[in-house]
Amino acid sequence: MNKKPLIGIPATPYELDGHTSHRVSEKYIHCAVEMTGCVPVLIPAVGDCVSTSCLIEILDGVMLTGGRPNVEPHQYGGEPSIEGTPHCPERDATTLPLIRTAIDKAIPVFAVCLGIQELNVALGGTLHQRVQELDGKRDHRMDRTIPVDERFEDKHPIDIQPGGVLEQLFDGARRVTVNSLHAQAVDQPGEGVFVEAISDDGVIEAISVPDASVLTFGVQWHPEHPNIRKNDVNGRLFAKFSEAVHIHFSNRTGIAIDTRAA
Predict the structure, then answer these.
(1) Confidence band for 50, pLDDT divided at 50, 70 and 90
(2) Which residues sit opposite 203 in a β-bridge?
(3) What is the greatest pairwise CA distance in the chain?
(4) Active-site residue 88, yes or no?
(5) Radius of gyration (Cα) for the chain, nearest Å?
(6) Out of 90, 113, 128, 246, which one is annotated catalytic?
(7) Choosing from 72, 196, 205, 224, which is the catalytic residue?
(8) For residues 254 and 247, what is the distance between their CA atoms, to the nearest angstrom?
(9) Helix-, strand-, coil-residue percentages of the chain, each rounded to 5
(10) Using an 8 Å Cβ cutoff, are 109 and 62 in contact?
(11) 258 confidence band (pLDDT: 50, 70, 90)
(12) Residue 245 has pLDDT above 90, yes or no
Protein backbone atom coordinates (compact mmCIF):
# COMPACT_ATOMS: atom_id res chain seq x y z
CA MET A 1 0.00 0.00 0.00
CA ASN A 2 1.61 3.25 -1.18
CA LYS A 3 -0.97 5.69 0.12
CA LYS A 4 0.28 8.31 2.55
CA PRO A 5 -1.36 11.10 4.57
CA LEU A 6 -1.76 14.48 2.87
CA ILE A 7 -0.77 17.72 4.60
CA GLY A 8 -2.20 20.94 3.16
CA ILE A 9 0.23 23.89 3.14
CA PRO A 10 -1.22 27.29 2.14
CA ALA A 11 0.88 29.29 -0.30
CA THR A 12 1.45 33.05 -0.56
CA PRO A 13 1.25 35.03 -3.82
CA TYR A 14 4.42 36.88 -4.86
CA GLU A 15 4.79 39.16 -7.85
CA LEU A 16 7.94 39.28 -9.96
CA ASP A 17 8.31 41.11 -13.25
CA GLY A 18 4.57 41.47 -13.61
CA HIS A 19 3.85 37.79 -12.99
CA THR A 20 2.32 36.40 -9.82
CA SER A 21 3.24 32.98 -8.47
CA HIS A 22 1.93 31.17 -5.40
CA ARG A 23 4.87 30.06 -3.31
CA VAL A 24 5.79 28.01 -0.26
CA SER A 25 9.35 28.07 1.04
CA GLU A 26 11.09 24.80 0.28
CA LYS A 27 12.03 24.24 3.91
CA TYR A 28 8.38 23.68 4.84
CA ILE A 29 7.86 21.22 1.99
CA HIS A 30 10.93 19.16 2.85
CA CYS A 31 10.14 19.40 6.55
CA ALA A 32 6.64 17.98 6.01
CA VAL A 33 8.11 15.04 4.10
CA GLU A 34 11.11 14.42 6.33
CA MET A 35 9.53 14.96 9.74
CA THR A 36 6.06 13.47 9.21
CA GLY A 37 6.43 10.98 6.35
CA CYS A 38 3.47 12.65 4.61
CA VAL A 39 2.82 14.16 1.18
CA PRO A 40 2.59 17.98 1.08
CA VAL A 41 -0.26 19.50 -0.93
CA LEU A 42 0.21 23.19 -1.75
CA ILE A 43 -2.94 25.29 -1.43
CA PRO A 44 -3.03 28.43 -3.62
CA ALA A 45 -4.26 31.65 -2.04
CA VAL A 46 -7.52 31.96 -3.94
CA GLY A 47 -9.91 32.79 -1.14
CA ASP A 48 -13.53 31.81 -1.70
CA CYS A 49 -12.86 30.71 -5.28
CA VAL A 50 -12.32 27.22 -3.82
CA SER A 51 -14.43 25.67 -1.09
CA THR A 52 -12.31 24.81 1.92
CA SER A 53 -14.96 22.27 2.92
CA CYS A 54 -14.37 20.43 -0.35
CA LEU A 55 -10.59 20.65 -0.03
CA ILE A 56 -10.46 19.56 3.57
CA GLU A 57 -12.11 16.23 2.75
CA ILE A 58 -8.86 14.92 1.25
CA LEU A 59 -6.44 16.33 3.84
CA ASP A 60 -5.12 14.68 6.98
CA GLY A 61 -3.40 17.76 8.37
CA VAL A 62 -2.83 21.47 7.79
CA MET A 63 0.52 23.20 8.25
CA LEU A 64 0.35 26.99 8.33
CA THR A 65 3.68 28.55 7.42
CA GLY A 66 5.48 31.75 8.22
CA GLY A 67 5.65 34.43 5.57
CA ARG A 68 6.34 38.06 4.83
CA PRO A 69 2.74 39.39 4.92
CA ASN A 70 0.97 40.46 8.09
CA VAL A 71 -2.68 39.61 8.72
CA GLU A 72 -4.72 42.65 7.71
CA PRO A 73 -5.78 44.52 10.89
CA HIS A 74 -9.43 44.75 9.86
CA GLN A 75 -9.59 40.97 10.31
CA TYR A 76 -9.26 41.44 14.08
CA GLY A 77 -10.46 45.02 14.63
CA GLY A 78 -6.94 46.44 14.87
CA GLU A 79 -5.65 49.89 14.03
CA PRO A 80 -4.55 50.44 10.39
CA SER A 81 -1.00 49.29 9.67
CA ILE A 82 1.78 51.77 9.18
CA GLU A 83 2.49 52.62 5.56
CA GLY A 84 4.52 49.99 3.75
CA THR A 85 3.46 47.04 5.90
CA PRO A 86 3.10 43.98 3.64
CA HIS A 87 -0.32 42.34 3.54
CA CYS A 88 -1.89 39.56 1.50
CA PRO A 89 -5.70 39.68 1.52
CA GLU A 90 -5.78 36.60 -0.72
CA ARG A 91 -3.90 34.56 1.88
CA ASP A 92 -6.11 35.89 4.70
CA ALA A 93 -9.20 34.94 2.69
CA THR A 94 -7.80 31.43 2.23
CA THR A 95 -6.21 30.57 5.57
CA LEU A 96 -8.77 31.99 8.00
CA PRO A 97 -11.72 29.95 6.63
CA LEU A 98 -9.40 26.95 6.14
CA ILE A 99 -8.46 27.01 9.83
CA ARG A 100 -12.09 27.19 10.96
CA THR A 101 -13.07 24.38 8.62
CA ALA A 102 -10.13 22.22 9.73
CA ILE A 103 -11.14 22.60 13.37
CA ASP A 104 -14.79 21.90 12.55
CA LYS A 105 -13.85 18.80 10.52
CA ALA A 106 -11.31 17.53 13.09
CA ILE A 107 -8.20 17.97 10.93
CA PRO A 108 -4.92 18.40 12.90
CA VAL A 109 -3.39 21.88 12.57
CA PHE A 110 0.22 22.94 13.15
CA ALA A 111 0.77 26.70 12.78
CA VAL A 112 4.18 28.41 12.51
CA CYS A 113 4.98 32.13 13.00
CA LEU A 114 2.49 33.92 10.69
CA GLY A 115 0.47 30.73 11.04
CA ILE A 116 0.01 31.11 14.81
CA GLN A 117 -1.20 34.65 14.20
CA GLU A 118 -3.69 33.41 11.60
CA LEU A 119 -4.87 30.67 13.97
CA ASN A 120 -5.50 33.20 16.72
CA VAL A 121 -7.30 35.66 14.42
CA ALA A 122 -9.43 32.87 12.92
CA LEU A 123 -10.74 32.20 16.43
CA GLY A 124 -11.50 35.84 17.18
CA GLY A 125 -8.21 36.89 18.79
CA THR A 126 -6.12 40.00 18.19
CA LEU A 127 -2.49 40.74 17.35
CA HIS A 128 0.31 43.09 18.34
CA GLN A 129 1.51 44.57 15.08
CA ARG A 130 4.98 45.73 16.18
CA VAL A 131 6.20 43.90 19.28
CA GLN A 132 9.53 45.75 19.29
CA GLU A 133 7.68 49.01 20.06
CA LEU A 134 5.96 47.68 23.19
CA ASP A 135 7.34 48.64 26.58
CA GLY A 136 9.63 45.99 28.04
CA LYS A 137 9.77 43.87 24.88
CA ARG A 138 12.94 43.04 22.97
CA ASP A 139 13.25 43.20 19.20
CA HIS A 140 12.06 39.78 18.06
CA ARG A 141 12.61 40.45 14.36
CA MET A 142 14.95 38.55 12.07
CA ASP A 143 18.50 39.90 11.97
CA ARG A 144 19.09 40.16 8.23
CA THR A 145 22.73 41.20 8.70
CA ILE A 146 23.86 37.69 9.66
CA PRO A 147 24.01 34.47 7.57
CA VAL A 148 20.68 32.71 7.03
CA ASP A 149 21.54 29.65 9.12
CA GLU A 150 22.49 31.86 12.07
CA ARG A 151 19.13 33.66 11.90
CA PHE A 152 17.37 30.43 12.84
CA GLU A 153 19.53 29.61 15.85
CA ASP A 154 17.99 29.71 19.32
CA LYS A 155 17.70 33.26 20.67
CA HIS A 156 15.73 33.32 23.92
CA PRO A 157 13.99 31.12 26.50
CA ILE A 158 10.25 30.55 26.72
CA ASP A 159 8.32 29.51 29.81
CA ILE A 160 5.98 26.53 29.37
CA GLN A 161 2.59 27.07 31.00
CA PRO A 162 1.13 24.25 33.12
CA GLY A 163 -1.74 22.13 31.86
CA GLY A 164 -1.06 22.28 28.13
CA VAL A 165 0.22 20.22 25.22
CA LEU A 166 3.79 21.47 25.55
CA GLU A 167 4.09 20.63 29.23
CA GLN A 168 3.23 17.03 28.43
CA LEU A 169 5.31 16.99 25.26
CA PHE A 170 8.42 18.29 27.03
CA ASP A 171 8.03 15.94 30.01
CA GLY A 172 7.10 18.68 32.43
CA ALA A 173 9.97 21.03 31.48
CA ARG A 174 9.21 24.61 32.49
CA ARG A 175 11.64 26.39 30.15
CA VAL A 176 13.09 25.69 26.69
CA THR A 177 14.96 27.87 24.20
CA VAL A 178 13.75 28.83 20.71
CA ASN A 179 14.56 31.19 17.85
CA SER A 180 12.92 34.53 17.09
CA LEU A 181 12.08 35.97 13.67
CA HIS A 182 8.87 37.99 13.92
CA ALA A 183 7.37 41.45 14.42
CA GLN A 184 3.71 40.54 14.95
CA ALA A 185 2.56 38.38 17.84
CA VAL A 186 -0.59 37.22 19.61
CA ASP A 187 -2.19 39.93 21.76
CA GLN A 188 -5.58 38.79 23.10
CA PRO A 189 -6.12 35.03 22.65
CA GLY A 190 -9.13 34.00 20.61
CA GLU A 191 -12.12 32.02 21.82
CA GLY A 192 -11.05 28.69 23.27
CA VAL A 193 -7.34 29.48 22.79
CA PHE A 194 -4.97 28.32 25.54
CA VAL A 195 -1.62 30.06 25.99
CA GLU A 196 1.01 27.31 25.99
CA ALA A 197 4.22 29.33 26.36
CA ILE A 198 5.43 32.89 26.99
CA SER A 199 8.85 34.37 26.28
CA ASP A 200 10.96 35.77 29.10
CA ASP A 201 9.86 39.29 28.07
CA GLY A 202 6.16 38.42 28.07
CA VAL A 203 5.38 37.64 24.40
CA ILE A 204 2.99 34.76 23.73
CA GLU A 205 5.06 32.08 21.99
CA ALA A 206 2.71 29.11 21.64
CA ILE A 207 -1.02 28.45 21.74
CA SER A 208 -3.38 25.49 21.43
CA VAL A 209 -7.12 24.86 21.17
CA PRO A 210 -7.92 22.33 23.92
CA ASP A 211 -11.57 21.95 22.93
CA ALA A 212 -10.69 20.97 19.35
CA SER A 213 -11.26 17.26 18.85
CA VAL A 214 -7.75 16.80 17.39
CA LEU A 215 -4.35 18.43 17.87
CA THR A 216 -4.56 22.15 17.02
CA PHE A 217 -1.60 24.27 18.04
CA GLY A 218 0.80 26.97 16.91
CA VAL A 219 4.24 28.31 17.76
CA GLN A 220 5.65 31.77 17.18
CA TRP A 221 9.15 30.52 16.48
CA HIS A 222 10.42 28.70 13.35
CA PRO A 223 10.96 24.96 13.96
CA GLU A 224 11.21 23.99 10.28
CA HIS A 225 14.74 25.14 9.39
CA PRO A 226 16.93 22.17 8.33
CA ASN A 227 19.55 22.81 11.01
CA ILE A 228 17.11 22.74 13.93
CA ARG A 229 14.04 20.73 12.91
CA LYS A 230 15.36 17.59 14.59
CA ASN A 231 16.56 19.12 17.84
CA ASP A 232 14.95 18.04 21.11
CA VAL A 233 12.33 20.81 21.10
CA ASN A 234 11.32 20.98 17.44
CA GLY A 235 11.66 17.26 16.81
CA ARG A 236 9.05 16.61 19.48
CA LEU A 237 6.67 19.14 17.92
CA PHE A 238 6.80 17.44 14.55
CA ALA A 239 6.52 13.97 16.08
CA LYS A 240 3.34 15.03 17.86
CA PHE A 241 1.88 16.52 14.68
CA SER A 242 2.90 13.48 12.65
CA GLU A 243 1.15 11.16 15.08
CA ALA A 244 -2.08 13.17 14.89
CA VAL A 245 -1.96 13.30 11.08
CA HIS A 246 -1.35 9.55 10.73
CA ILE A 247 -4.19 8.75 13.11
CA HIS A 248 -6.52 10.95 11.05
CA PHE A 249 -5.37 9.24 7.84
CA SER A 250 -6.02 5.82 9.33
CA ASN A 251 -9.49 6.87 10.50
CA ARG A 252 -10.28 8.47 7.12
CA THR A 253 -9.09 5.61 4.93
CA GLY A 254 -9.36 2.57 7.15
CA ILE A 255 -5.71 1.82 6.44
CA ALA A 256 -3.83 0.77 9.56
CA ILE A 257 -0.37 2.34 9.51
CA ASP A 258 2.51 3.06 11.83
CA THR A 259 1.91 6.43 13.52
CA ARG A 260 5.62 7.19 13.64
CA ALA A 261 7.09 9.54 11.04
CA ALA A 262 8.71 7.82 8.09
Answers:
(1) confident
(2) none
(3) 56
(4) no
(5) 17
(6) 113
(7) 224
(8) 10
(9) 30, 20, 45
(10) yes
(11) low
(12) yes
